[in-house]
Amino acid sequence: MAAVAAAAPRDIQYYLRPGVLQLAALPPLSLYVHLPWCLKKCPYCDFNSHEMRVDKMPEQRYLDALLADLEAALPLIWGRTVHSIFIGGGTPSLFSPEAIDHLLGGIRSRLRLQPDCEVTLEANPGTFEKERFKAYRGAGVNRLSLGVQSFNDDFLKILGRVHNRAQALAAIEEAAQAFDTFNLDIMYALPGQTLDDLKLDMATALALAPPHISIYHLTIEPNTYFAKFLPVLPTDDAAYDMLDLITEMTGAAGLKRYEVSAYARDGHRCFHNLNYWKFGDYLGLGAGAHSKLSFAHRVVRQVRFREPVQYMKNALAGHCLAQETQVSSADLPFEFMLNALRLKDGFALQHFYERTGLSITSIQSALDLAERKGLLERDLVRVKPSELGFDFLNDLQSLFLPSQP
Ligand SMILES: C[S@@+](CC[C@H](N)C(=O)[O-])C[C@H]1O[C@@H](n2cnc3c(N)ncnc32)[C@H](O)[C@@H]1O
Ligand code: SF4
Q1: Model-level pTM?
Q2: Do residues 33 and 283 touch, judged by C-beta distance below 8 A?
Q3: Cα(48) to centroid of ligand 1, in Å?
Q4: Interatomic CA distance for residues 77 and 60, integer angstroms
């Protein structure tokens, strides 16, 4: 992948110029908007989130920067329809419903949205006030994603969360009233957690009948507080037992696992995340946001300035790109497979061709090897990870790494 130095705005002709790639059609386009502040940094978190007091948060200036950012990016997505919007963080629910209304109004007036466009907002139970979720709904949000993590006050404390069990339950009750569809984020393999602790968390979550749950194995990320002061974690074997329990309990409650960490009732899969995993396009607005955009002859990745003050200054001056790269043809198959193999149903062969512009024969030997190892299943139209491949996903994905020159 050839890195291009930080990143003067380019004329659209630059992206449209001839190249080796020939994409027959462009994939669905999603919009991601990053709101980078939180009341308190959690000890496990390596997202681009920064501690901030609500009364100090430069809400209006950030909104202005986001809309300037969008304005500058418009030529790159000219004429395309937006299929989903995800307002993530950080803690987007620190922003007032009026601010979200202003943001979505600004987006709607500049872009064509699909009539049933999914609009998700991430919310933390600790920033919840009565009626707030209804006001987000009124602003045009139609899906809420609640960062619950656990219902156990001891674990919430260990995770440094600003909410407790009672607040989580109250927030879910209001989410269920205000939204037809919502998600709960839960984490497992927490410091000191037993299988019985997890069983209680899962039973509590499932009793609330969420249409969607995302369940993440707690990972220790570099440069976090937990990386420096490593807590005692469940063993790998205990974590596998936990995953078995999760699969069993979600299945019994009518939630299907459709991606490594995502479980949904029929009709409630998250379009936005599915678009990432199906190697669709996304424009990322906001501090540190990532974009992946296809053009007829190339696929481009962009990263915005990560630090919020620097981002706002640059976005308002019309140049918020910290980095831009073009994905090389050699890297495209691996990037596609890294995402598509996370899906339980895998992908259609036709899809590989549409998204990468490459024939499936470009990964034939890796497909054959993966099948021989029992990691993959395929027929004439689809490829999907086997049960074994899903359990050893890294091994499966690594078979598609580009060979070194
Ligand atoms: C983008 S985060 C932010 C959502 C929201 N700010 C919150 O924390 O409630 C989305 C989710 O990623 C998960 N997550 C964050 N850091 C993680 C880690 N180190 N290991 C596993 N899951 C993590 C959490 O479940 C979190 O809700
Ligand atoms: S609230 Fe979410 S984004 Fe903020 S620090 Fe905690 S995990 Fe990270």
Answers
A1: 0.96
A2: no
A3: 11
A4: 25
Confidence of residue 2 (pLDDT cuts 50, 70, 90): very low
Identify which of 357, 351, 354, 376 has the alpha carbon closest to the alpha carbon of residue 365. Answer: 376
Say if residues 271 and 83 touch (Cβ distance below 8 Å): yes
Beta bridge partners of 120: 86, 143
Query: Closest residue (by CA) to atom 16 of ligand 1?
Result: 45
Which residues have any ligand 1 atom within 6 Å of their CB?
A: 44-45, 47, 88-89, 91, 122, 124, 147, 149, 185, 187, 216, 218-219, 221
Core vs surface per residue 31-56: b (16+ CB within 10 A) or e? bbbbbbbbbeebbbbeebbeebeeee
Q: What percent of the chain has pLDDT over 70?
A: 97
Measured in Å, residue 50 CA sits from the centre of ligand 2 at: 9
Q: In whole angstroms, what is the distance from residue 201 CA to residue 218 CA?
A: 15
Q: Which residues touch 58 (CB under 8 Å, ≥6 apart)?
A: 312
Torsion angle defined by CA atoms of residues 134, 37, 147 and 129, in that order, rounded to the nearest 10 degrees: -30
The pair of three-digit structure tokens given for residue 286, joined into one six-digit string: 């906001």
Q: What are the backbone angles phi and psi of residue 298, rounded to the nearest 5°?
A: -165, 160
Nearest atom within ligand 2 for CA of residue 41:
5
Q: Whose CA is nearest to atom 25 of ligand 1?
A: 185
- Measure CA of the first residue to CA of the last residue in the chain; give whole Å: 13
Which residues form the pocket of ligand 2, taking CB atoms under 6 Å from any ligand atom? 38, 41-42, 45, 47, 49, 89-91, 124, 147
